[in-house]
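Meet today's protein:

…
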Amino acid sequence: MATFQKRISRGRAYWSIVESKRINGKPRPVILEYLGTADSFLKKLRNANSSKIRSYSHGAVAALLKIAQDLNLVQILNKYALEKQTRDNLSVGAPLLLAAIGRACHPTSKRAWHSKWAKSTSLSHILKMNLRKLDSQHFWDQMSAYPVEKIASAEEEIVEAFIKKFDIKLDKIFCDMTNFFTYIASTNERCKIAQRGHNKQKRKDLR
């Protein structure tokens, strides 16, 4: 068993961690670690490198990014963009993809996309970039560069790529969209599907 041992030298106390071992049949204290004075040891402890561990949500975002990469999704979206603008080192299609991933993993508003969700995931590490600048204004500016009349064409090409890549049989596809909430405004009368009711997140205040 290891113990502390004090040794006095020139009026000062020095400490070591020792362990009793038998040497030539006799017990002897063997120094395992020299600590020095109490002050010097305390200084070492305070200056010691400490490791910090952070946990991030990874599986879902990594899987969705891999699928998007396999489908060349960003390139398809950029093909139909009105302007080939780049903002915060992201083309028009990139934030649209990131917004979609956020909606798939944890539905939230564009304003809270980073603070309420993205920063708790491994997205920044995978993409090797700071996503803090992707605020609501960033998303809206890039979405404004996407013509509404081209959305159907982009959607059709993405679906075709998905069907071909993963050999999807269309006779066995079902989509149930009745129990999650949206941020569609109450004043938006064009959308008749979204209504208030029961959803898994208990947000009865949202359609």
The chain has three domains: 2-47, 59-170, 174-207. The longest strand covers residues 12-23.
